[in-house]
Design a protein that fits this description.
Oligomer: heterodimer
Shape of chain B: globular
Helix content of chain A: 10-25%
Largest sheet of chain B: 2 strands, antiparallel
Structural class of chain A: alpha/beta
Helix content of chain B: 40-55%
Number of strands of chain A: 16
Largest sheet of chain A: 8 strands, mixed
Strand order of the largest sheet of chain A: 6-5-2-1-13-14-15-16
Number of helices of chain A: 10
Radius of gyration of chain A: 19 Å
Order of helices and strands of chain A: HHEEEEHEHEHHEEHHHEHEEEEEEE
CATH architecture of chain A: 4-Layer Sandwich
Chain lengths: 356, 137
Amino acid sequence: MPDNNRRDFLKGAGAVAAATTLPLSVVELAFADPAQNFTFAYISDSHIQHVKGTQFVRNWDRGLIRAVAETNLLTPKPDFVMFGGDLAQLGTKEELDHGAEMLAKLNYKTYMVMGEHDYYLDLGEYWSKLYGPHYYSFDHKGVHFVVLNSILTFDDWTYNRWPTAKQRMLEMAGLDNPNGSPFMVGDKQRQWLAKDLEKVDKATPLVVFSHSPIQKIYKGWNFWTDDAEQVQALLKPFAKATVIYGHVHQIQYNQIDNITFNSVMATAWPWPYPQSYAQAEQHLPKLTVPMNRANPFFERDATGWQFIDVATGKVAMKYNLYNNTNRVVAFDPATGKPLDSAFQDLAKQIPPQVHY
Amino acid sequence: MTRKIAAAALATLVAGVLWSGLVVRADEFTKKDLERWDKEYMSVVQKGRELWTSPDLGTNGVACAQCHPNAANTHPETYPKFQTQLGRVAALREMINWCIQQPLEGQPLALDDPKLIAMETYVAWERRGVAMAPGKH
């Protein structure tokens, strides 16, 4: 596997790449036969927000516009693009249309993940008109990909709790809102997943995309999936299983049994790590060396992009962070977990990685 | 007018001294007082939380809580501190104003505006229990 550094990968991106963050992810899957290697890009959490009329929040627009432009400049060209959910902020037709218009400029086949901000106004109805089913799977060059809708919740909360759809959306949109409700994949979808995976050889590399982490980190901000253990149980038979998720707007990584977990960056804004909320009981994976604390004076700081190699079916995330030192978080076969190549050793961590 | 107010104030003061000498001692307060002060304080915390989550504080619908859920990553215990980006020591409320102007695309509040005080109160409440660390980065 050649070490694709940013310079190689982005030749041709030129001034655009140099100007600011690269808020997208590139995934490269490497196999014994290099002819089978391929890449895909990953853009997530754009939170396109309608102000009024034809006006949208400029800051969030810029994040997505840049990600799309840079993805189109990638060399080598990715086979497809994933969008990791939360295209919209409040799920309106205006926001989804405006986001779709920007995503339509991508020169590649694009696969979509559902986020809670896309869903809770009309329960994904308009999103479906644009993008189709809420969960599905596909195969690409020997890898089985699964896209889950992991942001569902209790039926009572969804159908009975709120007088209007708009209020339901607003209640779920507030990350720290105590009136929110925990995310889950749910029985119906887990049954579908079990059936979908039945026919897949257990030696096939499996990559699952979800919006929320399929693990439990901090319930108060829904860095959480309520039935995470039940979903994990379905992935455990696979020798090479990886979950890539959005929602958290920050670098996280973890290893649970044979399943490797990696998060992707947002194009819109970064979120604090849960340990910076003094009242929170949280479980950020001990493995995770945090991204640098964001400097708000740099509008696109603490967003970024990453190469993700799945050499021999395991994941190496190469985070390219415009305003910070680049990061590599690679699966280490010796310890059986993902490790940061530079910062994993506590003595090598730097002051901006301290979140308090 | 001013003289009238001064006279009234003096009268109140005199009356107050006489009265308090009879009924209230300045160094004593009751459980009821404590409850009242806490209630007053928490009502301002609540007001601050409402402003923190409000789409109407700026002009573009963005709320403080969008980037700072539970006011996290605001570090009120470290202020006032040197802000490299401003090139001087700044108070927390100045940074709140900075955010109102930039990401929220709004107008800054007066530094003694009750709204700004309420937001500062809310931020501090979410940070309760954390040791003071002025100047820390």
